[in-house]
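Consider the tokenized backbone below.
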């Protein structure tokens, strides 16, 4: 068997080469560990490049009132108190240093035009102050470019176009990973003392999504099957603004930066409808009339007046994504949508063509090239799209290690930081904050091991047989048909709005798909065979889909990215609980656990500073 596969040894193996993976690999290598980096696509092509609007950090370069405390409060309120408070605190405290570190490594952020040349920041939904450092609307691309340049000069060994099929263990602890190179189909074994999972999200489980093809839930499925616990899997973010036309680009992301630069949402009657959807937790923070919102826009966005001197409040288009997405869905459902089933996002009537092309160059070219729409002249059509998974591998907030010794997770595939809803811009800072911590502690763990954990290489023959099974199956279905059915099943049964009967049916349908996957067929051989790749991806996707639905059934309330039509509103019984999914034998077990709460002295300090409002905390805890 040893002649049939390639083999590598690393102190730290990082699986996934987006922002979190690159930052983890850089940190592990800097600690003196031999570090390997595996990416499913080509280096530099990770889904992180699709994060356009900015990276959130309380730099206070434009508004001196900003602080880590306010960023922490915004993240907790935006997450409807479903966050692990300590992860949210670490994130808020360390984000500014990570942004300045990126700048030191070569990131070219937009600058202020006040003569000081500080990093410029913009408004984004749910953030009290301007907080998003940005590079036009191509921030994720700049982050990847910077980390990639730093990484390739850090002694990291990169394995591109490589997919991991299974994590290997020595007893209870992690020992390595087994997979294949996509181009040749040749199997590969990575022996490792510790592993960091940073594989991104799960968007490809849904028919309408903003994710790139790699986001098939690999890290979630691999970790779960290796014994790691998953948490908060019911919380999925449907971004309010995805493209709706033409069908070939449906779901493609429209950056929140459009609204940050003054874009407004309108229904088919030309009404700015967001004013009627301001929830109690945001009462008093957002403008209640068009006149007030327009006055704020002119002073703060157009004239550059410091926001602390402006009495008007920001427009409700800048509320958190879960709130805006539900509002869009309701307008469409009640017949006030556009011709193609969306609403209008209008920047053309708000900014000059020159400003739009300068501030939002990617959006301008995206619509011009893909939809033949000139956003400097006409509104965009937009609607909700599956965008981000708040849940993931349950990790220790300080180290990012899972319950499996030696297995770490960071970025979108780790749970806790965002609670039930992520604020825009928090994803990029999440990647670099927790990517660094994961790399640092994976290195510490690896250095404590004198020898490499043992791998039972006889198990590789069994894994290889599993991987080859689609070629042996006769008369089965092609993988793409099963994938399409999975996407529609998840869209219907565990989409933006959920209820018990549809989720029960969803679980039955997923069981049916499991039987069909056993007979899935792949033509040809292992050399660059996308149909075979999808056939293997379906194992993880079905495990993740089941985890989402079972967690959603367990949480009998509505909170952030989890909305149930049969249990509306916040529940006191679930406010301080998190749903955890784990493997028990060959079954999936779902349990409720206590969610770590904000320490009383910190909560009082933030209430006294008028950041937390007691009435909002009571509401989110189901007490009001």
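A designed sequence for it:
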């Amino acid at each position: 068997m040893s002649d049939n596969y390639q083999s590598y040894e690393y102190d730290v193996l990082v699986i996934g080469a987006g922002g979190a993976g690159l930052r983890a690999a850089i940190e592990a290598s800097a600690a003196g560990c031999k570090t390997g980096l595996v990416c499913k696509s080509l280096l530099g092509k990770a889904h992180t490049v699709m994060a356009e609007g900015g990276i959130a950090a309380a730099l206070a370069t434009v508004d001196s009132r900003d602080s880590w405390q306010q960023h922490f409060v915004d993240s907790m309120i935006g997450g409807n108190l479903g966050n692990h408070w300590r992860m949210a605190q670490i994130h808020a405290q360390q984000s500014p240093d990570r942004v300045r570190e990126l700048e030191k490594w070569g990131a070219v952020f937009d600058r202020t035009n006040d003569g000081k040349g500080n990093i410029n920041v913009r408004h984004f939904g749910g953030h009290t102050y301007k907080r998003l450092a940005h590079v036009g609307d191509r921030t994720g691309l700049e982050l990847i470019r910077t980390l990639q340049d730093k990484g390739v000069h850090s002694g990291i060994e990169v394995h591109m176009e490589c997919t991991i099929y299974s994590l290997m263990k020595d007893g209870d602890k992690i020992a390595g990973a087994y997979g294949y190179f996509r181009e040749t189909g040749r199997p590969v074994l990575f022996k490792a003392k510790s592993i960091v999972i940073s594989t991104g999200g799960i968007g490809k489980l849904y028919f309408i999504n903003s994710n790139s093809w790699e986001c098939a839930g690999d890290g979630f499925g691999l970790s779960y099957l290796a014994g790691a616990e998953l948490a908060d899997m019911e919380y999925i973010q449907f971004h309010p603004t995805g493209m709706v036309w033409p069908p070939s680009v449906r779901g493609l992301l429209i950056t929140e930066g459009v609204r940050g630069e003054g874009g407004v949402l309108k229904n088919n009657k030309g009404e700015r409808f967001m004013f009627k959807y301001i929830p109690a937790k945001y009462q008093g923070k957002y403008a209640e009339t068009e006149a007030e919102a327009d006055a704020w826009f002119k002073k703060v966005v157009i004239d550059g007046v410091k926001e602390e001197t402006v009495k008007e409040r920001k427009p409700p288009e800048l509320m958190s994504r879960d709130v805006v997405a539900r509002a869009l869905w309701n307008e469409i459902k009640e017949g006030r949508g556009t011709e193609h089933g969306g609403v209008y996002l209008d920047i053309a009537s708000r900014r000059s063509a020159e400003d739009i092309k300068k501030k939002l160059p990617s959006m301008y070219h995206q619509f011009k090239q893909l939809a033949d729409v000139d956003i400097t002249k006409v509104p965009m059509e937009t609607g909700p799209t599956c965008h981000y998974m708040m849940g993931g591998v349950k990790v220790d907030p300080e180290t990012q290690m899972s319950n499996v010794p030696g297995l770490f997770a960071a970025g979108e595939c780790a749970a806790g930081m965002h609670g039930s809803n992520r604020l825009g811009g928090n994803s990029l800072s999440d990647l670099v904050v927790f990517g660094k911590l994961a790399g640092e502690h994976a290195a510490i763990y690896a250095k404590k091991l004198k020898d490499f954990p043992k791998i039972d290489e006889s198990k590789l023959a069994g894994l290889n047989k599993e991987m080859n099974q689609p070629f042996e199956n006769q008369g089965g279905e092609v993988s793409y048909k099963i994938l399409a059915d999975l996407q529609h099943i998840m869209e219907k049964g565990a989409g933006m709005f959920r209820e018990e009967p549809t989720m029960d049916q969803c679980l039955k349908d997923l069981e049916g798909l499991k039987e069909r996957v056993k007979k899935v067929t792949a033509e040809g051989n292992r050399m660059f065979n996308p149909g075979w790749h999808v056939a293997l991806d379906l194992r993880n996707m079905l495990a993740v889909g089941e985890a989402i639905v079972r967690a959603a059934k367990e949480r009998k309330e509505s909170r952030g990215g989890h909305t149930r039509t049969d249990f509306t509103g916040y529940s006191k019984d679930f406010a301080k609980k998190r749903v955890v999914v784990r493997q028990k034998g060959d079954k999936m077990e779902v349990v409720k656990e206590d969610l770590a709460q904000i320490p009383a002295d910190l909560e009082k300090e933030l209430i006294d500073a008028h950041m937390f409002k007691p009435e909002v905390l009571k509401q989110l805890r189901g007490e009001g």
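The first strand starts at residue 6 and ends at 15.
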